Amino acid sequence: MSGWKLGVLGGSGLYELPGLKNARWQRIDSPWGEASDEVLTGELEGAPVVFLPRHGRGHRLLPGEINMRANIDVLKRAGCTDLLSISAVGSLREDLPPGAFAVAGQYVDRTRHRPASFFGEGVAAHVSLADPVCPRLSAMAVAVLREGGVAPFENATYLAMEGPQFSTRAESRLYRSWGCDVIGMTAIPEARLAREAELPYANVCMVTDYDCWRESEAPVGIEEVLEVMRRNVDLARQMLRRLLAALPAAREPSPIDSCLDAAIMGDPAGAPPETLRRLEAILARRLSA
Question: Is residue 215 pLDDT above 60, yes or no?
Answer without folding.
Answer: yes
